[in-house]
Amino acid sequence: MTEKIVVKDLYKVFGERPDQAMQMINDGIDKDEIFDRTGQTVGVCGANFTVHEGEIFVVMGLSGSGKSTLVRLLNRLIEPTSGQVLYDGVDIAAMSDEELRALRRRDMAMVFQSFALMPHLSVIDNASFGLELAGIDEAERHKRALTALDQVGLKAHANSYPDELSGGMQQRVGLARALANDPAVMLMDEAFSALDPLIRTEMQDELLTLQREHKRTIIFISHDLDEAMRIGDRIAIMEGGIVVQVGSPEEILNSPANDYVKSFFRGVDVSTILSAKDIASKRQVTVIEREGVGLKTALNRLRNEDREYGYIVGDKLDFHGIISVDTLDEAIKSGADKLSAAFLPNVEPVSHDTQLSELIGTVAHAPCGVPVVGEDGKYMGVIKKANLLATLDREGDGTNG
Amino acid sequence: MFPEQLNVPLGKWVNQFVDWLVINYGAAFEAFADSLLTVLVALEQVLRGAPWWLVLIAIAAITWHASRNWKLVLGLVVAMFVIGTLGLWDKAMQTLALMIVATSLSVIIGVPVGIAMAMSNRLRAIMLPILDTMQTMPSFVYLIPALMLFGLGKVPAILATVIYAAPPVIRLTDLGIRLVDPEVLEASRSFGASRKQILFGVQLPLALPNIMAGINQTTMMSISMVVIASMIGARGLGEQVLMGIQRLDVGAGMEAGIAIVLLAVVFDRIGQAYGKRSQRTSSGEDA
């Protein structure tokens, strides 16, 4: 994966004498004390992360955590105090005004929480706003703006004015305005937070659809974990100006860096975020089916391990079937010699990317733990009722702790 | 008694300064006055030379353009017609010319100053007391030096009017630009707008309703200056009022007063109609 944006040691201090505050940061003084002593606010403190090309990178945090500041440092709507923002290897923090304007017109578009449309311009003129700034003639920019409006389903409203549209539609115009420039990077600052939940979900889906077609690099600011989990390929969590953790939704959910990160998961429905592979355990008895391994060998192993069920795999760990003490006994009595004669008939393996919410029925009805297989049919472990329940119960953990 | 030793001879200093201005820069002031006078005289000749019905048609056309409201058009044409029936048409045209020049000059100076004030808090801090002074200082105080610099007549009248009438358009331009939604400005910047593009493409169009309100106020205030202007030799309706006072001719004064009010009403309605129009376009109900 190509590195599209690399943020290195990025700091932003709001106040009269940022150099003084930077000195204090270097001396290891924390931001609350800096504020008490100098009245200056550390907005972003030593951010380091990389955004890959074509991914949706969500920056999440509570209000005041510096996420909106961070995104504005990326296109320099706010001047960084120190550090680098590398866009395709070029440092944005060191660009001239001219280069910066060119970058904003060509490569980076932004969508705002409050939509920030021009009230005096029609929808099509709003959508072509960026193109107009870039000096593209009217016929061409209207053509491109119409294409963008078409992508967000607003072509029919091209001649309306923003105040005639609903909030959701206004934000579609905001989205079209960003898309019209065909930017490589889109910065979305709480873009859907002002919309009601239904419209928000609809807009998220739309964004994901657009993303499937165009594979833009999107940096999405959000305070809503469900939103972050839903659309984010990777998530950065910010607390008090510091990026505390960067990782995939599963990574963050499974191993939160601290209590702050953990606190986000209160009330989050893990069953829609985790998939089968995340909770599959490999502590079951597996028997490799090969020459010389017969029914009796398998039965012995199960008895030695004191297990009821065993999982049969091939020599490449490809999943074959499930055996139990009872079926083995029966097969031996009936005089069969192949392991497959003892396979449990009704248990099918589930795919590794099945969401937990879809698994509940299968796991509940299966007599034994349900095996999980990868795309190539490879055995990845087993989900038992107990560990599924324990995972789903994590929500409860969050609220108690 | 306040000790006399502490008296500051400010008056003397001002006198010396004005004398110095007259002696050293008199010629420059005269050249400026002449060019202003040329414009004013030309406009006055056009207005006074044009047949009365043509002026009425022009007023009707402008009102229609501003409001698309035929009742208003009719009302304003009747108002102008009444001025004519009072026998004050010619003087009204003189006043009209004076007002148009004074208002235009106020706007030409006021809008850029207002923009500059909106851009710089420091300039704003300096300008606000100056604007207060311009609006509250009795006009006679600056009429005297203006007379000394420009002589008796129309030019000092215009300048006095501009000093009195420019503050509203300056204040409202400043206010209008400052009221533009900061998020909209941020969005413009995020799409790579230069300062010039932001000013002309976003700030001024969005501030337009306020600027129009300012221009309307400026027009009204410049009308209210006509009587004072007539005291230093500007002709027109104010002169008639002044004459009424001097001769204790209540009727003549009343006639001229009514004519001034009617002229003010005409200007105010046209100005308001344009203001509403700009508001409509900026809020998007009118394509």
TrEMBL record, chain A:
Record Pfam families: ABC_tran, CBS
Domain ABC transporter: 29-265
GO terms for biological process, alphabetical: amino acid transport; glycine betaine transport; response to osmotic stress
CDD domains assigned: ABC_Pro_Gly_Betaine, CBS_pair_ABC_Gly_Pro_assoc
Domain of life, per lineage: Bacteria
Annotated CBS domain residues: 343-398
PROSITE patterns for this protein: ABC_TRANSPORTER_1, ABC_TRANSPORTER_2, CBS
Entry GO terms, CC: plasma membrane
Membrane topology of the entry: Peripheral membrane protein
Enzyme class: translocase
Protein localization: Cell inner membrane
Keywords, comma-separated and alphabetical: Amino-acid transport, ATP-binding, CBS domain, Cell inner membrane, Cell membrane, Membrane, Nucleotide-binding, Transport
The protein's Enzyme Commission number: 7.6.2.9
Known catalytic reactions: a quaternary ammonium(out) + ATP + H2O = a quaternary ammonium(in) + ADP + phosphate + H(+)
Molecular function via GO: ABC-type quaternary ammonium compound transporting activity; ATP binding; ATP hydrolysis activity
Subunit-level organization: The complex is probably composed of two ATP-binding proteins, two transmembrane proteins and a solute-binding protein. The complex is probably composed of two ATP-binding proteins (TmoW), two transmembrane proteins (TmoV) and a solute-binding protein (TmoX).
Family note: Belongs to the ABC transporter superfamily.
PANTHER family: GLYCINE BETAINE/PROLINE BETAINE TRANSPORT SYSTEM ATP-BINDING PROTEIN PROV, GLYCINE BETAINE_PROLINE BETAINE TRANSPORT SYSTEM ATP-BINDING PROTEIN PROV
Name under which the protein is recorded: Quaternary amine transport ATP-binding protein
Taxonomic source organism: Thalassospira profundimaris
From TrEMBL, chain B:
Segments forming domain ABC transmembrane type-1: 92-271
Membrane topology qualifier: Multi-pass membrane protein
Keyword Cell membrane recorded: yes
Regions crossing the membrane: 20-43, 50-66, 72-89, 96-120, 140-166, 220-238, 250-270
One GO process term, biological-process aspect: choline transport
CDD domains on file: TM_PBP2 (cd06261)
Pfam families (UniProt xref): BPD_transp_1 (PF00528)
GO cellular component terms attached to this protein's record: ATP-binding cassette (ABC) transporter complex
Compartment annotation: Cell membrane
Main localization, broad class: membrane
GO molecular function: amine transmembrane transporter activity; carnitine transmembrane transporter activity
Keyword list, A-Z: Cell membrane, Membrane, Transmembrane, Transmembrane helix, Transport
Family: Belongs to the binding-protein-dependent transport system permease family.
Protein name: ABC transporter permease
Protein species of origin: Thalassospira profundimaris
